[in-house]
């Protein structure tokens, strides 16, 4: 069997099954985006990593080294944010073709430094090796108070499902990267969406407010697509979910880009991925206060998009009052 047949998440489960049981200090390990490690203090240690490989995750003609540095850092911060945590220290490993210009690396690190500083974290070290393609592998440490930790496994039946910001913009931006346009309005939309894809902004301030209120029951960042990432919450919480398609926050720019590229905006919102918004669940009676607090302090809207149901009901999306299966699929690195 090839790894492409098994798929990314199937391979992860296979690897997990072959390893010995972790020690008592590991609260959450393989299978989540962030490892949670018990310490002697009142805070948990958080650890995550993410890789950017040339011609797989990015193409040099589409992204400047400065943008690439920002992006590589931002996607790791997003994982820590989804736990309610605070990023602290980055380690950066680079695989470099020998012909890489030194100025390219200077600009790459300027982008990484800017993104790291915005989060309050610092770059503490790393490693460099020769590689046929440019590779950036980021390892990030973070921390979270015991009583502020939010995982994927706490969603309760009848909880509402909420999402920050808007959906589909990352995938729409990717679709537009190859497209040239001369229409002024289309150019404005294209620039906004391409920027959203190339340099996503992690919802760290929003996640801090959500965790501070201590009413969210489960949380995840949207890297692989709403359907896929909601599937992680449902599996970890042993629940199902219903998504109301008409309530999904899809911007006018994303809808115009979908029309321009002959694509369904609903598909972009559900399966496109790389939005790096925060998806979370909360008891119905707590939702209004959560929405008000996040929007008042950050300006970011928070939208109710569905409801947690029993595991027997599975995952569904309601379109024009008709239920359809919501497949927990999205970006798969090995597909």
Outline the secondary-structure elements:
Layout: H1 3-6, H2 8-18, E1 26-28, E2 35-37, E3 43-53, H3 65-81, E4 86-96, H4 102-119, E5 122-130, E6 135-145, E7 160-164, H5 169-176, H6 184-198, H7 204-213, E8 218-221, H8 226-237, E9 239-244, H9 252-260, H10 265-271, E10 278-282, H11 287-298, E11 302-310, E12 315-319, E13 322-325
Parallel strand pairs: 4-5, 9-12
Antiparallel strand pairs: 1-2, 2-3, 3-6, 4-6, 7-10, 7-11, 8-10, 9-11, 12-13
Helix pairs in contact: 3-4, 3-7, 5-6, 5-9, 6-9, 7-11
Describe this structure in words.
By secondary structure, the chain is an alpha+beta fold. It folds into two domains: 32-148, 2-Layer Sandwich (60s Ribosomal Protein L30, Chain: A), CATH 3.30.1330; 160-325, PurM-like C-terminal domain (Phosphoribosyl-aminoimidazole Synthetase, Chain A, domain 2, Alpha-Beta Complex), CATH 3.90.650. Helix content is 37%, strand content 26%. The chain contains eleven helices and 13 strands. It is globular, with a radius of gyration of 20 Å.
Helix content: 25-40%
Number of discrete helical segments:
11
| Main beta sheet strand tally, sense and closure | 7 strands, mixed
Tell me which CATH architecture of the largest domain applies here.
Alpha-Beta Complex
The count of strands amounts to: 13
Report the span from N to C terminus: 13 Å
CATH H-level homologous superfamily name of the largest domain: PurM-like C-terminal domain
Text of the CATH class of the largest domain: Alpha Beta
Named CATH topology of the largest domain:
Phosphoribosyl-aminoimidazole Synthetase, Chain A, domain 2
Amount of beta strand: 25-35%
Work out the radius of gyration: 20 Å
Class of secondary structure makeup: alpha+beta
Question: How would you spell out the order of helices and strands?
Answer: HHEEEHEHEEEHHHEHEHHEHEEE
Gross morphology: globular
Number of domains: 2
- Low-pLDDT residue intervals, each spanning 5 or more residues: none
Instruction: Give the overall average pLDDT.
Output: 93
Order of the strands making up the biggest sheet: 8-10-7-11-9-12-13
